[in-house]
Records
---
Amino acid sequence: MKIALIGYGKMGKAIEEIAISRGHEVILKCTSKNTIGEADFSLVDVAIEFTKPELAVKHIHFCLDKNIPLVVGTTGWNKELDSIKEKTKSVNGSLLHASNFSVGVNIFFELNKKLAELMSGNTDYSASIEEIHHVQKLDAPSGTAITLAEGLIDNNSNYTSWKLADSNSENQNQLPIIAQRLPEVPGTHTIHYTSEIDSISITHEAHNRKGFALGAVIAAEWIKNKTGVFTMKDVLNF
């Protein structure tokens, strides 16, 4: 499979290494110096996009217009998701987006939903989410933390929305998310349930970027020759 990388930072380099190890060829690396508008996509089977939130939507439209299946790992652009879904359908395109491509994190998403179901209606426990990422990560809370919050809210009747923990709100039905940015950390997400008696927590801690990169390549392998809008739930058959 011939892959184009849109964005060639640390994640792009990790994806390239894994893609090559799985027998694929990276034929394009688009950066700020070698933009998508200057590159030849005629031989590309699938593109993988990891850039910045303010660039992602432009890149999505570009690939849809060129009928190139696209895997998007950039987060922070989901307010445009409904219009992107409409365009993907109208052009019979192919898009796979995820807040996190790690197989382990996607298993963690399902554990979070199950725990939320078990805790639903139990007002003795207060829930919160804590996420830690490297200082270069621009969006806060992370897309992964938002996905976790949405999964918890959908399955726990105690909460109706989420908020950043430093925002002012006395609404007990808002789930607080604590977002920290620290040097040189791949990413940690923890769900806390705390009562006067005890605490229950589940945590996913990334040791490096390999899990995210492997998931992105697996997603690219899966989406080739498909049309529609997909997530990692489709890839992993959850």
---
Amino acid sequence: MQNLNTVILAIESSCDDTSCAVLKANMVLSNITASQKIHEQYGGVIPELASRDHQKNIVPVADAALKKAGLTLKDVNAVAVTRGPGLMGSLLVGLSFAKSLSLALNVPLIEVNHMQGHVLAHFIDEPDTVLPKPSFPFLCLTVSGGHTQLIKVKSALDFEILGETIDDAVGEAFDKAAKILGLPYPGGPLIDKYAQAGNPNAFEFAFTKVPGLDYSFSGIKTSFLYFIQNNIQKNPDFVKNNLNDICASYQHHLIRVLLKNAKRALKETGIKHFAIAGGVSANSELRKQVKALEKELGISTYIPKFEYCTDNAAMIGITAFYKCLEKQFSDLSITPLARMPV
């Protein structure tokens, strides 16, 4: 296999997005994602419904990705797939499809850790576009609905976790607050939207003390719940009258908690390159505050393109490319892993 000409078909199905991408080496030729709207009426992802929709979507999404890339299955040299972490049923659909393709095409199968994919999304290139990339080693803050981690990235395949949440992830803290406010799912982007018209210093919320560089968001969520309940008792229209300020203050608080540990880690390690990754890295205020760190700390910062922040197959493909360089292939006996350490 000629690595620089390797065509990788990548599959991502860890939660409720069915995504397929085609890459030639580290160059993304297509990246197609089908999002599932059915979960909005339930206020969160229903695992059984998610896996059913993956079964409906995966063949047409893969076909669309190949067509957009101008290629066919005969051109594919390797199949990459998310093995975990994620929802077992959703992962099983993607993994079963990938294993079938690998067997039928007689090409290598490459398993990918979903969170590693988020980090390595920074190394994606596009036709006629060379995107900025961090230099090794760099510090990456991965923030999503299921994870919050500070990772020292020594090389493409060598990660060291410096800190992580001991309970809930920051993305879950956003979505739970949105639910408390009566906002529809997914609520995180709506908090970001309303916050842009609010005062980030209007209200204060609790901080949690955690040793080292770890995080905790459970207490912050509880503080937010009690804050809303207490104020509604005094004024039933409190949320309606103060929605923008509530969203701005809560978002500001969560980002301040995130970046406090990140700044500490940057100072302690002396690393001058800082990146963010994961679904919450699409948050406009977080992106703004990260860019502000360049002047404050004298560092370089890296933020993925919006389409590579949320779950997508391009990030699975780029990770597979680096594993392909090291000939890290998988056999057909692998099974999905709901939990899978970086």
---
Amino acid sequence: MPTGFSTPHPRYRRVLLKLSGESFAREGAFGIQPDELAGIAGEICAAISTTVGEELQLAVVVGGGNIIRGARLAEVGKFDQSTADYMGMLGTVINGLALKEALHAVGVESRVMSAIHVPSVAESFIRARALRHLEKGRVIILVAGTGNPFFTTDTCASLRAIELGAEVLLKATKVDGVYTADPRKDPKATRFETLQFSRAIEQKFGVMDLTAMTMCMEHALPVVVFDYKTKGNIRRVINGERVGTLVTA
């Protein structure tokens, strides 16, 4: 059965936030909706400006599903999987550029860093440079996944969080945590407040893909799954409030 917290979440100083491509569009729609984009930028700005304690260092990994789904394209379009995945990576670059402009509009300095070489629009991801941006208080927006086909943006989020020494990976979703079953289909489904990676993997709760979850478990990187649609939730979880489901090793 789900278990409760004995203590609050810790407050975090260096955070990686994973945003799906769908967060840039309205439910069931594709593309980038200006109001959805502005909402995300506003929430990030609020989290930075009101975080308790030391200055927040924030990295953001964005998906590209609102523009193109590589796996689906390969399945129905008879595309080579590698080509389809690279197309998906380019979709994340578009989203990253859009988020940078939205953050700029609310006074947040940011940099887009890409795992594939697109020097006209983004810096190449170099770990030391990314850390320097974080130390200077800039939000870094990480695009193009890992730069390799056959890896999801969840895996990219886990990899970059570990590389950059993040204290937590925040998995932004449209549900308020991890449930024992799909709450939209099972009225008896209950939400976990805390959950172990081993149980999440064994019972296939779908927190993230298997590679991403295994990496987090092996490196003792906690993951918080939470509803980004609720105003103030990004700020709350960073400040240690009980939001969503905390998944730990």
